[in-house]
Amino acid sequence: MSCDADGHCVTCSDEGVPMRVVATNAEGLAVCAGGVEVMTDLVGDVEPGDELLVHAGVALARLGGREADG
Amino acid sequence: MKYVDEYRDAELGRALAAEIVATVEPGRHYKVMEVCGGHTHTIYKYGVDDLLPANVELVHGPGCPVCVIPMGRVDDGVAVAHEEGVIFTCFGDMMRVPGGDGTLLEAKAEGADIRMVYSPLDALRIARENPDREVVFFAVGFETTAPSTALTLMRAKAEGVRNFSVFCNHVTIVPPLRALLESPDLRLDGFIGPGHVSTVVGARPFEFIPADYGKPVVISGFEPLDLLQSVYMVLRQLADGRCEVENQYKRVVPYDGNPQALAVLAEVFELRPHFEWRGLGFISHSGLKLSEAYRDFDSELRFAVPGVRVADPKACQCGEVLKGVIKPWECKVFGTACTPERPIGTCMVSSEGACAAYYNYGRFARERVVV
After folding, report:
1. Where are the beta strands (DSSP E) in B38-100?
2. Which ipTM did the prediction report?
3. What is the pTM of this model?
4. Of B84, B237, B256, B333, which one has the fewest beta carbons inside 10 Å?
5. Residues of A with CB below 8 A from B38's CB?
6. Which residues of B are less than 8 Å from A67 in CB distance?
7. pLDDT for B102-118, tens place per residue?
8. Which of B65, B121, B200 sits opposite A37 (nearest CB)?
9. Could you tell me the domains of chain B?
């Protein structure tokens, strides 16, 4: 009933997962590796190759390799 | 994998552990609370606590969203799930949380249509595909998860999906921390702040901890090196006589959070006057319900939710575990009457729960070096 082999549910644990955008679809969702569909309303427009921090189907932040406060 | 591997380097970990040993004051016992259940999971999975001197104790906080759900809310969910025509959806771990009258998994076995989803968007999709059924999403989680529910509701409203509603159990992180800090039996030296909640709310909301209670806070990432560095930063503040909010997780957490996320939360939710927490009792302004603009999507208005109140089982000491007063293995039923297969308390359900993490990874009290 859990979400990974460790019995660890990343959704329930308030944990974000790094994911890479593969495409966008007609619903306005980003499709990430593994076919996971992600809402990107909180991070603006995304393109294939962008890295996102995803939690419960929402991108909470971009993983741009720079510090969030610049 | 990028953003992961570089934060799991064993050599760097040992170097950080040596820095920690060099920073602690001999003979002083330090208690540092990691607020977030995801941190608890990382600590046990990677044995982070084994790298710390014995006088640096990690205390596991109330940040596991499954662990803080009171039994009565589970019973309410089960009651809605049994309603005619309902498809009840929830995250995986919620299926095994015991209410006063069984779990959602048991209700499913009895015939209720209960389905596990990975996100509220999945629940909305089920609603679109089943227009003649009522689809309910059991929403749990802190400010990390609440934006997902909010954005899903905004989509449902924009699309005019009428057969979708949310049984809202979202909670906020600051009120329980304040309640813990007011607790007379708690003695903590500092906090490791929740990284992904802070992605949404920022680091600023935690400033009350140093300002009002004189304790350092370090917002931390979730990889083992993140946690080791955050422990070091808390100890460094204590050694320097400083007390402030520091952000170890700058690669993801902006100090002021995500303004778009805060805006959608403000539109879709409003604070409840009070909300019950497992083991902690009622805490003012700690829970969210749907705002007036989204009342048509509120399961508690759409269905006859019984509003069950159930006292925590007497044998269960989840409250003391959540407050860090006792360690999981000090609970009378730990590993005997209460196991992950048959949990009594919520801390044994989710692998982020302190009890389940101890149980699964075998972190019993052990000999460590005292500095």
Report:
1. 56-63, 86-90
2. 0.83
3. 0.88
4. B84
5. 10, 13-15
6. 250-251
7. 999 999 999 999 999 98
8. B121
9. 71-171+287-302 (3.40.50.11740)
